[in-house]
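Feature request disguised as a bug report, sorry. It would help if multi-protein outputs had a clear separator. Right now it looks like this:
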Amino acid sequence: MAITRRDFLNGVAITIAAGATPLSLLKASPSSEHRYPPLRTGMRGNHPGSFEAAHKMAREGHRFALGGLAVKETYDLVVVGAGISGLAAAWVYRKRHPDASILILDNHDDFGGHAKRNEFEVDDQTLLSYGGSESFQSPDSLFSDQVNELLGALGVEHERFRAYFDRDYYYRQGMSRGVFFDKAHFGVDKVVGGNPEMGVADDLRPELLNGRSLEAYIRDFPLPEEATEELLELHLDPPDYLPQMSMDEKVDYLSGISYYDFLKNTVGLSDEALLYFRSTSNEFYGYGIDAIAAIDAYEVRYPGFSAMDLPEPGEAVKAELDDPYIYHFPDGNASVARLLVRDMIPGVAPGSTMEDVVMADFDYGKLDRPGNGVRLRLNSTVVRVDNPEGPVDVGYLNDGELRRVQGRQCIMACYNMMIPAMVPSLPARQKEALHRNVKAPLVYTKVVLKNWQAFKRLGVHSMYAPTAPYSLVKLDYPVSMGGYEHASGPDDPIVVHMVQVPTAANTGLPVRQQLRMGRAELLGRSFADMEAEIRQQLAAILAITDAELDGLISAITVNRWSHGYSYEETSLFDTTPEAERTIELARQRHGRIAIANSDAGWSPYMHAAIDQAFRAVDELTGEEG
């Protein structure tokens, strides 16, 4: 049964991919008592039902009153948000207070926040992928002692990933990276393979690229000759574009202009050549090239700066660039969330190692059992947090019903920009600071193919698409561990990962405004519209008919994150002193309410989420003293 022509109910597929077993049918049924969210396809991430109440507060100014509502339950700690930071905060608090009672509330139908697990059953095979947070970023360089403490206690040794991540898998297949040029912008649908350039935070090594010369690669682009020559000079033999400036003057100048301005006005690229760079920064930054500073583009080794005698990037930047990006569970950082939940909630899943959690059967019916020290309650949108001096009142909606619980203390581990609407007693200046973290909208789409012979024929396993809806299309990471096996060859089913960053890029507008506009556009689109867009781009890339694609696709999951990456400081719109003051003010403890989430550090990484969890618990521990 092909995925096309299916009926969808509220954006969630009501049919299951071909080959699903009876067990997976039971797990996937939304009405089943034993619901298993990772198997649900269709619209995931910020799925229908997870954000409507929040938008009523944030957009319409609605406030939910708790007065007169009976307190149903009391806890030592209530955690708002079951993402990595919220789960880590509960874990740390429990370690310090072994007898504490903890309630974790989350608005989604699954735990993990952005660390979401996508699971598929195709022809009696299980396929896993990541719906958001995907890998450890530079653990040897960037992980704090606290992050290592938590992961170590969960049995995670990141060096073991080196044995599970088959780095030369696609090299052995004779496949390379490339670029997809779409007909609407370049006059032809064309895939050009053999890219010899390393990426930012790369999982490969130079000798595994199957690349050709950079000149041969660029000359194959479907561009006018003049634009091709411009790109060749920029990549291979750029001059010093600011010869009259000192090093310090260059740094100041490049910190104040965007990479787009640098390419268009300083370098003088034509519009045809500029098209190639339109989505260059989307996946790594979550912003277009008109919203990242030229100096940042230099630091991540975008072309054009090699003759300008600029200072070497700092060690932290080098670590992000050069450390191998191979610390990856088959379901991304969802396995870290699963490890935390398994460690805190008795009987929810068997096993005790980082390997056996990958295929462990999680019983969602045991997440919220009375008597457990830690309870995790899904589909529960917190709408009001009052009485910061304690006991903290927490109101949440579950099945449309407003309910009230109390916690001796509370940690807000949710989107920081929503906290002002949820905690009305916060000082006005702190609310303003919290609103400064405007998250980048992001779409991680997963398309399950019954085989990937079409990619094999192209000779390309990953491609950048500068002007297509999805700027990155690639076959999933080749990771096998804990009884899970990646595809052995192109006849096996595989997950295709597609990335879209729907901002108002290249408009010259302030980045926060671009992100808000992109989020509004994303939330206004139906799953059917997005499915059609996905299919159209894949058919053009693979040069196959719609009917052929029908027979190839087994499932589509759209992980829609209207609030995706945490905002990060950029010199175009922030100064470092101002950013530091804003961060500190935004995350101030408010009585017995502390604030976590990676937003609290203006950093979109898993390790930042864990660090902020430790900080929030430390603040509450200090408050107790």
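(second protein starts here, but nothing in the output says so)
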Amino acid sequence: MQQQYEGYKDLADSLKSASALLNLERKSQLHQDIITICNHLVNPSFRIAVFGPFNHGKSTLLNAMLGNRTLPIDLIPTTGASITVKYGSDVRTRIMLVDGTEIYRSGTEILQQFAILDGNRQMRKDVASVEVFCPHPFLETGVEFLDLPGTNDRDEQDNLVREQLLSADLVIQLLDARKLMTLGERENLRDWLLDRGIKTVIFVANFLNLLEPDEQKQVQNRLLFVAESFRAELPPGFSNLYRVDALPALRARLKGDVAAANSSGLAAFETALQNIVEILQPNRGSVRLPRVQAIASQIQYSLKAKIDPIALEIKSFDDKQNSKIEIKQKAANLIYKGFTTSIGELRDWLELPKLLTKYQADAAVALAENKFKDWQTNTLKKDLNQLQLSAVKWLYQAYEFFQEERPQDLLISFPSEPQVILPPKPNNNDDLSEPGSIAVGGGIGWLLGGPVGAAVVGSISYLLNKNIQKQDEQFAKESYHQEVAKLCITAIEDYLSSFSSQGLSILTEYERKAEKVICFEFSQEPVEITTKRGNLQQLQNGFNDLLRELEKVKILSNHQPYKKIPKYTNTNRKYSPQPERVKLFPEKDPVIKQQQEKTAKNTGTRVEYVSPPPPPKASPSPRPEEVEAKFRDWELNEEIARMKAEMQSPGSQTSKQQNSTQSNKAPNQPKTQTEKDKITRAYGILGLQTNASQAEVKQAYRTLVKKWHPDLFVNQPQLLKQAQEKMHLVNDAYTILSDK
């Protein structure tokens, strides 16, 4: 039993904690009910309350049962406070005042001063509790009686009675047989007892002896109807209706007239009452917990009324913030992808073997023709600027999107112009038609005025095509113009080598600085939201704790526990995109493997080798890299533009749903037949049904562009013309359907 009370103590503490979260007024009914039921949960005594309107004989009935005039009796409503009757070795009274003063007196005469209504029928304001101790054997078993003020007299008394009923394990509702179950009594039965889980109720009819025999029979039938209509939760075999003529019973007890006491109904009632208590008392939890359930339900609904609006507000804030963050993360990843791809292309372009293959011949010729400056400006610098701008534009996209650190321009400078020192002029006049001299820095264009000039230019091309590292015997003895050509080739190689080394170094440093541009900081959560998040967590913890305690005592609830509110973790953090991981299949050919690793490096991805899957039955034709490269930028730019538009109103679920619906529903129908025909043709060109969504239109356009791009047919004139015509139709169709 002690363990059971400890469990109830935890439940009582949980009820009080949950109540504190509601900030209830101390005088509110719910607050008073919570205090009452919590105190009652840990009370080891079995409490019986006598309840009914004033002048129904409540105190008279209790005095008859106690065998003494212990409680005040008068013809007017006198009980102005709830009086608890407990076991004691002798009759004495204890009065507790509101200020903490305790008053002990022998007997009960002091009740006339503290426990009755004053001349204005008002309760005393300074009395906190009234207790009377009696040496009665029934009380010695741990039973307490509670004599409540009469109802239907004053609101203050009604409130006190309503509150105290929660602390009763068994309620004796006294009925006046002369005016059976008035409207007020029926309302009290419903509102004060049934709705609050108080169902251990016994009805006792008083004053039946004052009626004529015929009237008594009619009232008895009505009493049976009242008892049967109320489903009292009493032990099986016990009635919930008894007749006791309270005043004759009291007189019989005072005189010691056993026969008169029996004829008043008192003895039968006392016997039934003692048997009922004997059964209910050991398991009083089954009596008290329904009241707890009723009160806990009110607390839970009140907590939910506070929790749900705050949770909705925080969820709305989090959704909006997460939507912004998600968009920014996607944008950062896309920009990073575009940037690393462009940087990879520039790095690949700066590799010395690529530079030599693409530019060495023309640069050497330009040097020999004294036109190197023009070649550097119109060819090398033009190509470099195009690649630099392609990379830098992504950083400006990032700055526009995130407003972090302003990007710097990527400036790869050129080395000094190559210098060539001509070898000594040969004696053979057939080889040179003009006197020779040394040309430093300015090129050797003076050589090219005649046949020797043409020979030098031709030798440059020939020597480069023939791999000058493996010369055959034909070049064992070189002519003068071949020596000059090799000097030009070597000078350009040194120039491009310096340019490559310097450019790659600048590029590496630029990539490091770019990390500060393609990133964003998560915004600080407003103090107001942080405070509400903490309050919400407290409310939800209190709700969940109460739910757990109710489950421990087998009280079912219609509510589910709240999930823990996630903390705002985006404070003072910065997001920077990371390189993607790509899975490559190890190739036996080391050249292919090296190409794979180089491609991954240029695109800023990390290589992870995995076992290859079984070969497919049919391999699709590969996509041409040239078309993919051009199409990639278009896709990335379009995606970033879309996300910028979303940033205008992120976090709106309604907006997202509308956007989703608009992107997937069929375009609105045009008004004129001409427009209808035009749109129908557009769908046909793209190979779609007329009810296709915008997403399907976009996908069809992408597929056709990659199939019919004119760059794929530059070496096939007939197909090139067909592709150009096809792309013209595809572009027009896509424009028409996009405008819809």
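Even a blank line would do. Unrelated, but nice: The first helix runs from residue 2 to 22.
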